Amino acid sequence: MKQTAGIHHITAIVGHPQENADFYTNVLGLRLVKKTVNFDDPQTYHLYFGNEQAQPGTIITFFPWSNGSKGTIGSGQVGITTYAVPAGSLPFWEKRLSTKEVDYVNTTRFDENVLQFEDVHGLKLELVEREEGPLNSWSNNGISAEKAIKGFAGAVLFSANPKATIQTLTDTMGLTFLKEEADVVRLKAVGDLGNTIDIPLESSRPGDMGVGTVHHIAWRAEDEADHKDWLQHIKHSGFQVTDIKDRNYFKALYFREYGGILFEIASDTPGFTVDESQDTLGQKLKLPEHYEPARERLERILPPIN
Ligand code: ZN
Fold this sequence. Notes:
Elements: E1 7-14, H1 17-27, E2 31-38, E3 41-50, E4 59-64, E5 77-85, H2 90-99, E6 104-109, E7 112-118, E8 124-129, E9 151-158, H3 162-172, E10 176-181, E11 184-188, E12 196-200, E13 213-221, H4 224-236, E14 245-246, E15 250-256, E16 262-270, H5 295-301
Parallel strand pairs: 1-4, 5-8, 9-12, 13-16
Antiparallel strand pairs: 1-13, 2-3, 3-4, 5-9, 6-7, 7-8, 10-11, 11-12, 14-15, 15-16
The structure holds zinc ion (ZN).
């Protein structure tokens, strides 16, 4: 049986890239670890934010559509992206969000305190304290490693068919059932980050893709050989799956699960230091080789990001 370690990355559609970068670096203190283009639409950025080492399980990526229309969060999408912060750090984050004028609400789920808020483009985020997962030593704007976001705690999936989504996650992706409470099922993956997946059993109204919505969630494969095994495994599980695509930093394949959510499987290798050193991650616009001839034109079109 195959078993993913958990979330590799989550990709969302947002508005202006500068506003996006300001929020994830200045407010949340993440590191911009890769500045590249959407490989399927090179006139738009693809921005990656994560921990200092740009490890799988910490990576949120964005397609910024400056003039894009607003989407609707609903079923068939990742509804909420949940970040893990070190134990005891939620009071720090409440203060920080207040200082940065980000409205938040305190709630609880499965006996954990959760801080819920939205990013600058309406994407639903939350913070929860977790003991698991390494500290993030990227210090940015007054956030020490003892407080910094470690990476994903998990995600809340808004499924159009919750039972089918749960079955795919357990039978095909190798997560295990942990508990059910207040009509939410919690599944667990084996990794130490991005390992807690919550699925409300009541489906919300259908979502609409656009600014402020998640485009897809990617699950971890170990390496490129394991990724090939996943392709066969997903096929044999009866899903329509794409070919393996080379995303430079990982191999990718995509399929839509029966609850309408776009799933990707992404390999941990070769990783984000394949085309720039760890010290300089995210500083320069990186392009796949076939777009290098168009660099000058693309650099003229893409808005500068500070
Ligand atoms: Zn992806």
